[in-house]
Amino acid sequence: MSGSLSNKIAGVNKVSGAKQTSGVKSLEFENNLLLPDLYGAHGQNLARIEQVLSVSLINRGNLVFVEGDTDNCRAAAQVLQTLYARLESGAAINSGDVDGAMRFAQDDEKNKSGNRQTIKTRKNVKDRQAKAIHTQNRDIIPRSPNQATYIEALLSHELVLGLGPAGTGKTYLAVAAAASLLLAGKVERIILSRPALEAGERLGFLPGDMREKVDPYLRPLYDALYDMLPAARVERALECGDIEIAPLAFMRGRTLRNAFIILDEAQNTTTMQMKMFLTRLGEGSHMVINGDPSQIDLPKGQVSGLADALDVLSGLAHDNVLKIVRFTQGDVVRHDLVAKIITAYEARKKGKSNE
């Protein structure tokens, strides 16, 4: 926090109308009870905003002063207003929510689409909360603009393709949408599928029944399910068939009606498997196909069914029934280092392709 900031502090404005004076934005938050959660333990939320947005922040009670580049200053103010509005609504916030609010603020500044008024910020918060996925255990709110687009597509389109690197929330959000629609009675069952292809390893024959054999491949889907629903509810649903584990190889010949169908790791399907899977879609169903085109584990020279489907289906993307959502490393919601690792690998790949 710079010394010059303390000297420039002036013209305090309430959250309903913050303004900039000599490079400083000043905010006043009226509910002191919300401030510990807004600032974070030992001010960690403020420190995170300073680090990512390259601004200086100083808080004096319920006042926060922001100094920095004009665009960054506006973005930081929007982040604080967004988080405060969430707390006002009764929701909790964590470090992931702080990072998510910063992604939205940076996107608004980049596109110059955000009205600078707090009333607009509060409207944006309500819009994003309206796109939340409601499950029995928690409400899932988007943490990037692409996640917001993806959630909207999951709840409104019959076929959604989610493409992008690991850690962007593709699988997690798809399972959340499935659980939400199952709880609401809008689908009768959830069907989880994934190609049983090892990522560069040979695991050999696995013991047990069908569910036990495919469990290692579908673990990320299970983890997300247990995050959305009580464990007892998940177990009952698995026993009675409301949630079904269907290995991709065994999907042939079926017509899946009134179901939410998720195909994960779709980059490892063959072209024939993908065509077979796509044609399983029945009346009243939603189908989600997720994959990372940069992590194909198929034998060398074999065409990925996901890449082939993108080529075949691209002409249908204008219809309301099909939505293709492309994630980038900027949407990674895991550790910061994950996004940097992905960027490093992509840079090396581009470098080799230019040689």
CATH topological fold name of the largest domain? Rossmann fold
Strand portion, in percent?
Answer: 5-15%
Estimate the mean pLDDT confidence. 82
* Uncertain spans: 7-22, 113-119, 198-203
- Domain count: 2
CATH superfamily of the largest domain: P-loop containing nucleotide triphosphate hydrolases
Radius of gyration: 23 Å
Termini distance?
Answer: 45 Å
Q: Which H/E pattern describes the elements?
A: HEEHHEEHHHEEHEHEHHEEHEHEH
Regarding CATH, which class of the largest domain?
Alpha Beta
Would you kindly provide a written description of the structure presented here, covering whatever features stand out?
The longest helix is centred in the first third of the chain and has 19 residues, at 70-88. Helix content is 45%, strand content 15%. Mean pLDDT is 82; it is low at 7-22, 113-119 and 198-203. The protein is globular, with a radius of gyration of 23 Å. It has helices spanning 3-8, 35-39, 44-53, 70-88, 95-111, 118-130, 145-156, 170-183, 210-228, 231-240, 271-278, 305-313, 336-354; strands spanning 20-21, 24-28, 55-60, 63-68, 133-134, 139-140, 159-163, 189-193, 243-245, 259-263, 286-291, 322-326.
